[in-house]
């Protein structure tokens, strides 16, 4: 009789990236853009809130409160970029600092959700107890706020290399939501001014709150998936498996997770009757886009 006994050879060498920073390709550029947009939004915030209180416009006040959430979110995003960059080489982070941006995105999604709730509550109160709105004064300020927001949306648009960077994507989504919110605010103000629909202004606030809440849920799902190490790419997983099994081997265990924007890690256990050195399996995975760290364990079978 013969008994199949596993023999193991493994390597934990990072075959693809020596520094293990795992930061996005546009990390520094995104950090600079985020700080610029933060400054622009802070100025807009002051103008919108002051105008909303002065002209008694719920839609304008809501837009200002939403912008306040954006300023906070942008500060978190910019801070996350700086923190990740400063500690990229720290040995305390076993897999680098690429996930700091995802943590910031998750936090910002929670803030966005809270903002939506506050806007919804205030809008309902205004529906139940309408206030006189100075439409002529509020409209120009609302239009100016929308123009500024659209400029910021353009400034923060993720590049081709930055689409996997949830930090910049979250900031961009925040401002996109604000632009849509601003358009709703203008529509509500126009309806109140031209048609006499006093309820249109707070209804615009409610519609905007629903929109913001939807964006918040989307961000929470995306950031949570990375923070919980869910498989980010079934396609990449299949390609890794196919390459490792190219000569009749069998992958008995395979895990793939995201390390940072554009970076993934894979841990695989390969079983074969005549196993090759682990370095040979590393070589098979060379050139896979987005695969930055690989650990391979090789199991061979011996007969008595």
Q: How much helicity do the residues have?
A: 55-70%
Shape: elongated
String of helices and strands: EHHHHHHHEEHE
Biggest beta sheet summary: 4 strands, mixed
Distance between the termini: 7 Å
CATH superfamily heading of the largest domain:
Cation efflux protein transmembrane domain
Count every helix, treating DSSP H or I runs of 4 or more residues as helices. 8
Give the rounded overall mean pLDDT: 81
CATH topology of the largest domain: Alpha-lytic protease prodomain-like
- The CATH class of the largest domain is identified as Mainly Alpha
> For the CA atoms, what is the radius of gyration?
26 Å
What oligomerization state is this entry in? single chain
General description of the model:
The protein is an alpha+beta fold. Helices cover 61% and strands 13% of the residues. It folds into 2 domains: 5-17 and 231-302, Cation efflux protein, cytoplasmic domain (Alpha-Beta Plaits); 27-227, Alpha-lytic protease prodomain-like. Strands 1-4-3-2 form a 4-stranded mixed beta sheet. Strand 3, helix 8 and strand 4 (291-302) form a beta-alpha-beta unit. The protein is elongated and about 80 Å long. The N and C termini lie close together (7 Å).
């Amino acid at each position: 009789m013969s008994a199949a006994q596993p023999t193991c050879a493994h390597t934990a060498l990072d075959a693809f990236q020596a520094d293990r920073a795992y930061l996005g390709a546009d990390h520094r550029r995104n950090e600079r853009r985020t700080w610029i947009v933060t400054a622009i939004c802070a100025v807009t915030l002051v103008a919108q809130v002051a105008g909303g209180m002065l002209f008694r416009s719920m839609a304008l006040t809501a837009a200002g409160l939403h912008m306040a959430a954006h300023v906070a979110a942008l500060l978190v995003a910019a801070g996350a970029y700086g923190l990740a960059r400063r500690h990229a080489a720290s040995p305390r982070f076993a897999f680098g600092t690429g996930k700091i941006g995802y943590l910031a995105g998750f936090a910002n999604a929670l803030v966005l959700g809270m903002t939506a709730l506050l806007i919804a509550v205030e809008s309902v109160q205004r529906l139940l107890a309408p206030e006189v709105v100075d439409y002529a004064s509020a409209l120009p300020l609302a239009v100016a706020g929308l123009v500024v927001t659209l400029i910021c949306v353009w400034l923060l648009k993720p590049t081709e290399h930055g689409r996997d960077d949830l930090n910049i994507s979250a900031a961009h989504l925040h401002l996109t939501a604000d632009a849509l919110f601003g358009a709703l605010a203008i529509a509500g103000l126009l309806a109140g001014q031209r048609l006499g629909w006093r309820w249109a202004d707070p209804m615009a606030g409610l519609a905007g709150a629903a929109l913001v809440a939807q964006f918040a849920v989307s961000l929470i799902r995306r950031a949570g998936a990375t923070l919980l190490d869910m498989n980010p790419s079934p396609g990449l997983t299949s390609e890794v498996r196919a390459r490792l099994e190219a000569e009749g081997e069998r992958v008995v265990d395979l895990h793939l997770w995201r390390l940072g924007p554009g970076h993934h890690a894979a841990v695989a256990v390969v079983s074969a009757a005549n196993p090759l050195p682990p370095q040979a399996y590393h070589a098979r995975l060379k050139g896979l886009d987005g695969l930055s760290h690989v650990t391979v364990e090789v199991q061979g079978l011996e007969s008595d």
